[in-house]
Each structure stands twice: as C-alpha cells, then as structure tokens.
C-alpha cells in the first residue's frame, strides 16, 4: 500500500526523524521517499500503518492513501479515469493544496472543477459536502508531481493544547511542551508496553505523553514537590501504570532495566556557575544510566547547546541523532538521541 504524509514545517529535521522512529519502533516494513520538503511517500505491506502513525505522531498533519499521481496538465483527465464509485462514501469534498510549486494555481477553482468531474461520474451515489465529508480527497501539487489521495487521518493536535503545562493541576515553570515531549518519546523508539524512565521528571510532561501511547512509566526527581506534582498530573490524565519516586538521577539503581530514557535535565543557566553545575549533572547521569538500560535501548534527551555530551559517553553510549531547536538568541536546545552500545561492539 502507498501513502503520502504532510509533515509539519515547524522544524526542519524533527518531523521526518519522528516518523522514521515510530515506523522502526512499531516494526513496520517501509520504503520512504521524500517527494518534496515535508511531503513523504511511504510504501508498506502494513494496512494499519495510518492508524498507528495517526495515534502517535506529533509533527505530522495528514496521512493520505495514494490513489494516483499525475501532473498538473493531466489532472482532469486522471480524475475522469479514477473509479470514484469504489472510493467514495455518501458524500465527499476535494481539497487542493499547493506545496513547493512556484506557478500560480487557483486552488478553489480547481477544487470545483475536480468535484464536478467526480459528481458527473458517480451521479446520485455521492454528493458534495464541504464540511466534514465522509470522504476527503486530497490533491497535492508539488513542483514535480501531483498526488491524489484519500485522506485517512488528520492528526488531532487538540490534545497538545489541552495538556499544555499551565493547564495541568500541577504547574512549574520550565516544563516542556507536550508536542516536543511526544516527539522525544517517539525518537526513543518506545512502544506500548515498554518500560520508560524519565529521571528528571519535573511536572511529568514526558511521562504523560509516554503514558498516552501505553508505556509503563518510571519517573524520578530529586525534589519531592515535583514527585507529588507529577503524580497529581498523571492521575489527572488518567494514567495509572506508573512508579514515581524521589531519587538522584546521578546515582540510579533500578530493579528492572528500561527500554528507553526520555528526559529534559535542568539547564541551570540563571546562576553564574550553573553552566558548570549542570555539566556535572549530565556527566554523572550519563556515566551511570546505561546500567539501568536494556541493550540497544535509547535515550532521547534535551540539552542546552553549551553542554558537550561526547566526553561523558564513554564506551556505553553513542550519539545516533541530533536536532537543534533555537529557543532565543542565547539558547539553542539540542535534542540528542543516544543508543546503548552492545557489549563487545567495536564502537
Ligand atoms: C527541566 S526540569 C524537567 C521538566 C520536565 N520535563 C517537565 O515537563 O516538567 C528538571 C527537573 O530535574 C530535577 N532535578 C535536578 N537535579 C536532579 C537530580 N540530580 N536527580 C533527579 N532530578 C533532578 C529538578 O527538580 C527538575 O524538576
């Protein structure tokens, strides 16, 4: 089956990395092709791929099943060949979107013409309905190709707004946005049933997102106020499968090894010596954490740009991916993905 996805443009590298991580985490066979910036085609034998991705992705807008490809000069002809009666429900809408196509196109006019072609073919079997149609036909115009698809998922971002840090019962400044937290859980290649640890859990934002996708959770914070706050927030989100306790992330000894670590350690940029202090926290955390992780499992962590992780990784962890998020003039957040290296690996 072939699908095309419209990714968010809010970051250059995270949306595609997130998509590939979820495909890998969910053991989905796939071939991926970038049609144009933010437009990704996926070939897979997995018929459920759209609902799996739709449930998990933070930085994707739409998932469409490919019906046909053409070019702009042949689009009406192509529309008249498609067996619409096999595709449409009781009503439909055609929506045209232009991405990376420099020439002028009157999208509304094209939508009307294409809608008429369909209507002439299906007659009374299906009617035009522009609001909430049962069948949504997506036409995507790029510089090289026009994609025609059946929209299967429009990813609902309401959840990310509803659970913004200040809307949860326990709030503390410095909490991460739910969207980035979800993306980081995805980058760690966690799936439902896996055990995930956030050793600097703060208000529990990362744990909430991992809990929603069905992970078992361990949350740790050195500050008991944060521990109690995280528990309050998890309960508010009706997440039950968690252990949250007070401990020091620099010296953790868990009973069970985890499948992934996703975390946002303190930045400590306000005090003059804090840069050095937070470096030490990162160092001691990274030197001890691998012993609590399963082989080949991943860490996804946010760091400020001025902390260099490389000297702290020793032989147990390696950097597999890195993304930059510019926060403001003096702070860039780096999202690192690290992997626990196999014993005996030459790395
Ligand atoms: C940047 S905040 C985490 C924010 C979190 N991602 C959220 O969404 O709320 C960092 C947290 O690390 C905790 N912390 C600092 N040093 C720690 C340590 N050595 N061990 C465990 N937690 C620590 C702080 O109490 C703070 O809650």
What does this structure look like?
The protein is α/β, with parallel strands linked by helices. It folds into 2 domains: 2-154, VC0802-like, CATH 3.30.2130; 158-340, Vaccinia Virus protein VP39 (Rossmann fold, 3-Layer(aba) Sandwich). Helices cover 27% and strands 31% of the residues. It contains 9 helices and 15 strands. The chain has helices at 14-25, 49-56, 75-81, 107-122, 158-162, 178-187, 205-212, 224-236, 274-289; strands spanning 2-7, 31-36, 39-43, 60-70, 91-98, 127-128, 135-141, 146-154, 195-198, 216-221, 242-246, 258-263, 293-304, 317-328, 331-340. The strands form 2 sheets. The protein has an 8-stranded mixed sheet. Strands 11-10-9-12-13-15-14 form a 7-stranded mixed sheet, with helices on one face. β12 (258-263), α9 (274-289) and β13 form a beta-alpha-beta unit. The two termini are 37 Å apart. Residues 269-276 have low confidence and may be disordered. The structure holds S-adenosylmethionine. Residues 174-176, 199-200, 202-203, 205-206, 220-223, 226, 248-250, 264-266, 281 line the site of S-adenosylmethionine (SAM).
